[in-house]
Amino acid sequence: MHKKKDKVQAKSEYSVPSASERQLDESIEVKGSSRKFNADIVQIGTFRNQSIMDTPMTVTVLTRALLDAQGAQTVTDAMRDVAGVISSSTSPITAPNFMARGVQIQARTNYRLNGTLPIIALSPIMLENKERAEVLKGVSALYYGFTTPSAIANFVTKRAGSRPVTVVSLTGDSQGSYGGGVDLGREFGARKQFGARINGYASNVGTTVNGVTGNRWLVSGAFDWRPTDRLSFKLDIEHSKEETYEPGGITVPAAVDGRITLPRIPSIHNRYAAKDAPYNAWATNVLGRMDYAIWKDWAFRVEGGIARTRRQRAISNVSNVDLATGWGTNTTTYAGDQDYYNLNVRTELSGSVKTGFIRHELLFGYNRNAQVQDDQNRTNYKSFRQNIYNPIDMDFDALSATGSTETYGSTNTDTGYYMMDRAEFLKYFTLIGGVRYETYETYTPHTNSDYTVKKVTPIGSLVVRPTKQSSLYGSYIQGLESAGTAPDSAVNAGTILSPVTSSQYEFGARYKVKEALISLAYFHIDRGLAYANQDNVYVVNGRAIHKGVELSIQGSVTHELSISVSGTWTHAVQAQTGNAAQNGKSVIGVPDYALSAFAEYRPDFLPDLGLNAGVYYVGRRSADSLGRAYVPDYVTLSLGANYRLQLPSGQTVTFRANGNNVTNTRYWSNADTVLFVGSGATANFSASFSF
């Protein structure tokens, strides 16, 4: 094994690893400082274990060093470092949703564990057992099949390595949260053929919203077995739970004389939902994998798993708000049996052949995912008067039920056969071509809305490496995507919409400057348009055209200074809607500009001290498909420090303190039919003891 690692590491920076080397994760050892803000290798999709310089799409890697420097405890904390990824649809207090390039990151298809298992982001994704997060922008249908052309958010678990890990951590924040966890990693056996990484974490949770508290916990294990140099097995198991309460949202007012006036932003501490209205979620993810190196450069992989999320939620929104007084009507609906599954299997054969001076890296794969949603019963409660500026307390148990509705479950089956050829020639060029044959079937009991869609979707791209430090690329890819599920705020909540097609052009450049990576990309996406119409029915109608430019710089710009800076300009408009007043208007929730800038300074005279600061800007966004209302732009600031103390006994203690939204800025976290106020100022603290 060690000889194989040395061989891979000695390759020219122009070269891509062979197919079998990319297929077997353990054969590639990513070297570098544990404090790096950027990564050289990606672990996502068909680009798994590939140099980021040879990847013909925009990929942002959020390393553990970056997450730790920011004190990131939630996915919201992590995603703010990715150009153009912003909150969407739901409250950031419970389980936030996001959009990338102006397109929803679909909660049931676009979040992945270790590059493959589609986990269900209807409960908070916990970061304590994750080594890093990766965001692959744009259409990703070749490998992942039925997904929206926004981004694939991949979470890579921590694994045992050659160095033993024993870490005990304590955490807390200024809102009353407190907790702790353990992180244990070991390789063992006569040949170190076994590995185990165990993580456990539990915390009481406080928030900036009055009365919204709770608890969360996580238990996970990542296990490895390498019986021979050719054969390896991996198993990941994680189970998490979060119990908290619903903060409530504010429905966008109706138009008056062709204009919608939004209420002024209420206090960040206000809760509009009834007291103790629950938001509880449980998530279990299990993923197994086998890799076998057949001969020479050929390898075989099979992997599969199950993701399950169960949720209880009291959806609580205030509508018909009087802009002068703040009084409106609170409507509450309780869904206590939301149950979702993803059953996923994938097999792949990869290898390389040479035709003359061209080396072909070939990939053949089969992937099937069954997406199951059980029937859901919703209990409607009698509405009550609520004031968004001076909320009244109403006990959830005191609300009287007025009736119930049922949302019928469904099973969506996504089956795909795919192949891809990476042709490397003349040392400087890599031509990539691939195709996927997709069959998407929906079965909905009790209704007549079943359908089957079959489609062939291609990908083509060219990567040019003018120098070892630079690369240029262009790519085109088509996809078949879900138009999504009608959100809880819509009249047809829970309805799964029919699929639509999407396509994307992207052109980009990357350049390495010592330890920093500069990336620039232009994208153009054409996709089906989904939105809530004037009757608040979530529909698919027309097309959405998204184009924009993204720029990012990640890494160490000097020996003392590391940065993660990204910015995006996005122009997203509606077309072919059949409504002249709607065509040409901005897509709901998409800002023209977004900026994220984070920096950490470690002075040479005190290298164990880190001082950091971040600035995050989101431009104004349309909150209405006809452009009658806009959510204003906002800026938040973060400050932090960390210090690593080496004890005489050999133990290491790392202290961290981070403040988010330190100016306590009031802002709408999203722009949609229901608005939510962003989180207020919070100081996070932690101490980690490494033995």
TrEMBL record:
Compartment(s) of residence: Cell outer membrane
Disordered: region residues: 1-27
Membrane association type: Multi-pass membrane protein
InterPro entries: Beta-barrel_TonB, Beta-barrel_TonB_sf, Plug_dom, Plug_dom_sf, TonB-dep_rcpt-like, TonB_sidphr_rcpt
Keywords, ordered alphabetically: Cell outer membrane, Membrane, Receptor, TonB box, Transmembrane, Transmembrane beta strand, Transport
Gene3D superfamilies, per database record: TonB-dependent receptor, beta-barrel domain, TonB-dependent receptor, plug domain
Keyword Transport: yes
Ranges where the TonB-dependent receptor-like beta-barrel domain occurs: 316-662
Residue span(s) of domain TonB-dependent receptor plug: 52-147
Keyword Transmembrane belongs to the record: yes
UniProt cross-references to CDD domains, sorted A to Z: ligand_gated_channel
Family: Belongs to the TonB-dependent receptor family.
Listed name of the protein: TonB-dependent receptor
Organism: Acetobacter malorum DSM 14337
Lineage: Bacteria, Pseudomonadati, Pseudomonadota, Alphaproteobacteria, Acetobacterales
